[in-house]
Design goal:
By secondary structure, this protein is α+β, with helices and mostly antiparallel strands. It is built from 14 helices and nine strands. It is globular, with a radius of gyration of 19 Å.
Length: 362
Amino acid sequence: MTEPLPYVRDVLTEAQVALTAQSIASMQEPCGAIPWTVGEHVDIWNHVEAAMALLVGGQVEAAERAYDWVPTMQRPDGSWPMKIVAGEVDDERGEVNMSAYFAVGIWHHWLVRHEIAYVVKHWPSVRDGLDWVVSQQLPFGGINWTPTKDFALLAGSSSIYQSLRAGVALAELLDDPQPEWELAGGRLGHAIRHHRDLFEDKSTYSMDWYYPILGGAIRGEAALEHLAPRWNDFVVPGMGIHCVDTNPWVTGAETCELAMALDAVGDHKRALDLLADMQLMRDREDGAYWTGWVYEGEIKDVYWPVEHTTYTAAAVILAVDALGETYGHSSPGSGIMRGTSLAPHFEEIALECGCESVVIGG
C-alpha cells in the first residue's frame, strides 16, 4: 500500500502536495540537477531542499537522481562550487552552508526510506563536505562563508548547525564517530546563542532573524523572545513575510521557513496562519509557486520575479510535512526542522572565544 502524502487540513490536500512535487520534478535537468527555475543556476543547498521535498511528495526516483548527482560536482577538498549552470561551474567559490547541507538530505532520506545501503553510498561525500566546512570555523565559533571572504553569515552558520547534527546522527548510524564535528558544533551553537554581533550584519534580511531558530541553535522561550522584537518588521498579516525589511515584497520560501521555525518551538497556530497566507503565491493550474508578491509601490499587486521557483515549492512541501504532524498527516521525516530526529545538541566545550565552557546536555 502506498504511504499517504502529507497534508494540512484546510490548506493543502495530498493531491495538491503531489502536484507541487510534480512541478519541481518537471524542472529537473536530465543529469538530476534541480535549478532555481528553468534555465537558472543550481546551488547545492536549494538543490538538496528540493530533493527532500520530492521524496516527501512521492517523487522517489526524481529525488534519488537529484541526490546521486550531488557527489559528481564535489571537489577534492570536499567543497562544492557556489553556482552551477547547465552542468558547468559558473561560480567556483566554495560556500559553507551549501557544502554542509548534503548531510541533512541524506539523513532525511534515511528517516523516510530506511535504506542503509543508500546512506553508505553517500556517506563519503557527506563526510568530506562536513570536514571541509569544519575547517573553515573562525575562532569565535562562526563558519567563514567562503575562503575568499573573511566573515561568517548568521543564517548560513545556523543552517550548518543543523547539518552538523544530521552529520553526527549519520556517523552514529554508521559507527564512524566524528568528534571534531561535535566540538565544532558546540562552538558554533555557542556563537549563535551568545555572539550574534560577531557575524556579518545582514539584519535587514529576515533569514538572519529566524534562522537561528530554524537551524536549531535557539529553542524554547529564548526562541520566542528572539523573534518578538522584529515580528512586525517582517510579517505582513494575510500575505507572508518580507525577504528584506525595507521592501514591500513578501516571499513564499521565507514565509514557509518561518512557519517551520515556529512549529519547531511549538507556536503551531502562527505557523499554520503563515502557511495559509502564502498560498496566494500558488499557481492553481500546475501547483507551482511564484517566488513573491509585491503589495505596494508604483508597481503593486504583482508576482515578482515572474517565475516559478523550485525552492519555493520545496519549502511549501516541507512546511506541510512539518505542520501535518499537528494539523493533518506527515511523513517519517517531518521532524527534520524540529530537530527531534537529529543528534543531541552539542556541549559548549573547548571554546576559543574567551567564554567558559558550558555543558548544555542532550
